């Protein structure tokens, strides 16, 4: 399945953070979502073949990378208190597949 | 993102009862999906729907893609304690590209 690391992270406002994800075997598309407490996941962006393939309403300080082995990273610069959330990675078999399979998430707390 | 409205917000039922929840949108969607999320976990895909009017089952779960393409329904029959969790609907359309738009979830509690 999809794995994510770390499981929990505490950072200070203004710092930078990198979250990691390994896609399900055979999946070449990865999407990242932010889930605030009590809310549904919000789409951040999607990567396919190492290129950003779509982006939600998030500022440029949210950036990503996808590697040839289909693992990926989410980077957030200049952390703000409102960035505290569960960050979910989801993989799918192709860019045109809407069946996205989620990892367990990384809980980020910004103080 | 586009707003999906889920109802009810929460449900508290007894084991063995049937459950119905729904999801509506002001926009037309091409795909509807239903996920379940347990505390501290990521959402787990339950059912995917691709065609207006489609009715799909997965064990005790049945979901329907509304004819108007603006709504979807999920039913759980004969609920059991492990059905406890938050159920999310998610939709996709041409405006959102490959992104999924999620509702705020329906929280289900089942008492033995």
Radius of gyration of chain B: 13 Å
Low-confidence stretches of chain B: none
- What are the secondary-structure elements of chain A, in order, as H or E? EEEEEEEEEEE
β-sheet strand percentage of chain A: over 45%
Look at the helices and sheets of chain A and give the structural class.
mainly beta
Largest interface: A-B, 28 and 25 residues
Shape descriptor of chain A: globular
On the 0 to 100 scale, the average pLDDT of chain B is: 94
Which percent range fits the helix content of chain B? under 10%
The total of helices of chain B stands at 0
Number of helices of chain A: 0
Task: Walk me through what this model shows.
The complex is a heterodimer of chains A (111) and B (112). With 111 residues, chain A is mostly beta strands. Chain A is built from no helices and 11 strands. In chain A, strands 2, 4, 5, 6, 9, 10 and 11 form a 7-stranded mixed beta sheet that branches. A 4-stranded antiparallel beta sheet of chain A has the order 1-3-8-7, with no helix packed on it. In chain A, a hairpin with a 6-residue loop joins strand 4 and strand 5. The model of chain A has no long low-confidence stretch (mean pLDDT 94). Chain B is globular, with a radius of gyration of 13 Å. Chain B has 112 residues and is an all-beta fold. Chain B has no helices and 11 strands. In chain B, the strands form 2 sheets. In chain B, strands 2, 4, 5, 9, 10 and 11 form a 6-stranded mixed beta sheet that branches. The chains are: A mainly beta (111), B mainly beta (112). The A-B interface holds A 2, 4, 29, 31, 33, 38-43, 46, 53-54, 56-57, 88, 90, 95-96, 98-105 and B 1, 4, 31, 33, 35, 40-45, 48, 88, 90, 92, 96-105.
